[in-house]
């Protein structure tokens, strides 16, 4: 496949312009393994989440309706589709929103991987202690003896915010001592909420990579502490991948087929890479060449893009290119990508595009106006995807060389909305008004 934006691409990235990159190493194929992980690992993760479901339902009442399974709706968004088409060309196929913004417990995609890894660690400790058997009804984890067991253990994580929320809330509920190492860009309300749950927040003046590095160092020096490694953890990655198994069923329920005549396109916001990587890995295992995955990054934090396009992965940061890594998109302000994810996705990812912050605000306001769904800025990064694919020369080249030119009317596009429902109302409204103001300024 030809490399999309040509020789000037790196210049445009450095100038923090919006770009669309097609992965020249992409291979249209079925896979049974990537990064050492397989369908068996995904099913194992799904089974573990099922074992914990009775416990989750008992302590988080908002999950009771879904029997303790932490899942989000997949919704058709026809009014948003109309709005996007009115300022651009038609979006061929169906447009759907995966509402991880409304996942229970922590309101972001991190409720998948983050919570999963905490549960896995808790299960391991309880099994080792002889206090639990996989045959038990896990709602017994509610009992005081388990809280006492877990209170002798620590969990630590470095986070820009949302991973800290997921891990902090879940670990604290189980009874662990939790330490969340946060970067300077983390929002005050997230720190306040976690402190309220009994989580210890350690703050750093610099960015996410520093918070992770320091958190890891402190945790490694303490044998009772378990560090959740956002950059390299296979458990996190597998927790995210379970989304694909669930999505397969949700699409069946909506009557959406995916096969050689019905391609699926998925657009997922990317920070360090674990969330979108895990979801995309799961989708490729299930749908093989019929699913096409694109990541979206802020123009000021295109870490996965520069890592994959140079092949240097975690050996390069956006700061190395003179890019400041300053964005209002929480969770995406990451300067250095996960090497594990970049390498695992090397032949699986179709491409990556970047989005300006200003565009994110406009899109979240449009979504609120058309569908009455409120998401956070980072979660809106998926929306420009269909237009890049359908209306840019590089996107059209991708469609043509993939043999999909006459199949786009039968396609489905899923925009992955990765966060937002935990944002306090006043902040939610300020995001909305900011988006409206940008839109007004442009329509004058
Ligand atoms: C963390 C996050 C992402 C991206 O996940 P990574 O695993 O960091 O790539 C996307 N959107 C939101 C809202 C997030 O919090």
UniProtKB/TrEMBL annotation:
Residue stretches making up the Tryptophan synthase beta chain-like PALP domain: 93-385
Stored SUPFAM superfamilies: Tryptophan synthase beta subunit-like PLP-dependent enzymes
UniProt xrefs under InterPro entries: D_Ser_am_lyase (IPR011780), Ser/Thr_Dehydratase (IPR050147), Ser/Thr_deHydtase_PyrdxlP-BS (IPR000634), TrpB-like_PALP (IPR001926), TrpB-like_PALP_sf (IPR036052)
GO MF term list: D-serine ammonia-lyase activity
Catalytic reaction annotation: D-serine = pyruvate + NH4(+)
Catalytic EC class: lyase
Cofactor annotation: pyridoxal 5'-phosphate
EC numbers: 4.3.1.18
Residues carrying N6-(pyridoxal phosphate)lysine: 110
Domain of life: Bacteria
Family according to the record: Belongs to the serine/threonine dehydratase family. DsdA subfamily.
PANTHER family in alphabetical order: D-SERINE DEHYDRATASE, THREONINE DEHYDRATASE, MITOCHONDRIAL-RELATED
Protein name as catalogued: Probable D-serine dehydratase
Species per Swiss-Prot/TrEMBL record: Lutispora saccharofermentans
